[in-house]
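#struct-help
A.M.: can someone run this one for me? Single chain, 678 residues.
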Amino acid sequence: MPYQYSNNIIAVGLDELVPNFWNTLGSLQKEIQRYKDKPFGIKRLQVGGNGRKLLIDFDSLKPNIQDAIGDPRRTDNPLENYFEFDADAVRYYSRFKRSGNSLEPDEQERYIINASVMKAVLKLEQARVQERIKLRGSIRGITATLVKDVENFNNTLKVKHEVSHNLPASEKQFKKVLNACKSDLYYPLIKDPEGGKTNNARKVDDKTEMIFNGLFKNQLHKPTPTEVARNYDAFLNGYAEVYNQDTGELYNPKDFKALSNATIISYINKWENKLATHKARSGDRQAYMGNFKPHHQMEMPTLAGSILSIDDRQPPFVYNTKNDRVWFYLGVDIASQCFTTFVYGKTKEGIIVDFYRQMVRNYTEWGFCLPHELECESSLNSSFKDTLLRPGNMFQEVKIEANNARGKYIERMNGKLRYEVEKSASGWLARPTAKSEANQLSSAKKQVIPYDILVNERLLEIEKWNNSPHPENKELSRWDYFERNQNPNLKPTNWSGILPTIGFKEKTSCNGGYVRLQGKKRAIADEGKILTGEALIQQMRIIEGKEFDVYWIDGNDSKVLKALVYMNDKFICEIMEMPRYNRATIERTDADYEAIKLQSAYVASVDAFEKRQRNRIENIQIIDNTPKTINSNFKIPNLKRYEVRETPVEVFADDPDDDNVFVPSQKAAPGWRSNFNL
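D.P.: on it. Structure tokens below:
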């Protein structure tokens, strides 16, 4: 079939001319040679031989030959009336994936052209079938005419669109593709859509790739990819054995192909393989997650108290010649970026308990509720998972990150403290592995900062940080933002949920309605109010005159901030210091009179209960006849003994009433005057 050779020159191959117009190649070559130097006649575009095809200039052929072959520049193909580039094909092939991989751009372009031509062929076929039915003709042979039209249509595509299709030229193959496209236009045109042939042709199959990964991952000395390539070569040459430790299978070298070192290294370094092997080989979990693990992207909270992020850190300063550094444990409110809690020490021992105590002190002193949510690391906090950090005790939500630096917001704040605040201070130490040159070690001599000075300077830096402008509202400091934007939905402190874990424990008792703690008598209370009336009596029934445990915590002023009574690990009540009043009447204030009123009600509650209890008791006595001695075997001589003699009581028997007979008196009854006779 003629095709465009260059610009507007059309080339014709040997198979188009011999034997249709010249009997043999020799006769054709003779005519070419005859007109070689003449300005007319047949002309050759390319000499044949050595793998090249003989090409003839189409325009140099006789007109009858040109008409028989067909000029590809002529665009009178019937498919022109139906052809247009299919937009649906563009979308389909751009989204199609073979074995998880998208099609190459040139492959997509080829399938788009083929689908567009095939869509036009389906329309042309339908039109021809209807036309033949209308003329009552046979529909046999239509496919053959379509094949010829499709083959010639490449000329039109080249001239008008500078593209070409590669649909089958064989009628049998074309008919097969045509029928498949009638049910699904796009899928049948894809070569090897499942990728089976591609996978079968791979020199490195899944089993071989698994061996690469196993050798790279499981060896104790952490081999390099180059060492794995050498191990594989040794395995193929019989110098090493490779086996599956789980199944005991010994692999046969004859089942595997020889590969270049570059091929083996490229497979080991593929992302999907490094993702698994580096997880087992990596000793730095943070570095592994930074390279391979995607992280969440979240919006920042806007209300203070919504979430608190906490973690330990060692500021880059040393306080002795042994290069010891101070341990800090910090908590930052994410919305305000304000450090609300900070404790320090020379070791990490006990620092986490001190931290939670200090948080309770600070928030209670400021009059704020504890934060709703906490995010923390697991190393120091995992032991509190079922007690203090159980949701509902100290916080409503708790997120414990297991060695995931990117999961805690405070890591960013610690970085800002290090490089934006502390870096300019004397004695600052650079990280040995810092990426930025400005943050790397300098030639300056290491400076030792005394412990007290070091701690004081770090606290001053935190104070300065909290008083600096908030990044989202430059008119407010971080502390002002924290104060003015407290979340209104925070819950009150659950003292009974936190004091048994972080409180100080002391054994004491209740006597006379008061519990002695830290040298002071404290009244029975509940939910921050001293009890009176029946509520007080109910609690005194339980603890009065008994020993129990008191869990308490002190405030920043060292006074008792909150104290709770527990008996047999069961929460009973709260105890509070009773407000006092001035003994001198003239010096009393309104607060003194309120204290008098409260104390009077407290005492009256007990008095009233005592009176009720007393009135309930009836006047009951007892006569005790229990013998005081067993016998009288022991006697002291010359003692006068006074014995009580009991006179026998004569008992008269009652006459039976049934034997008595009533006999009336015969004498007249005396008159009333006889009562006055002497």
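A.M.: thanks! The two ends are 181 Å apart (CA to CA).
D.P.: also worth noting: The mean pLDDT is 84.
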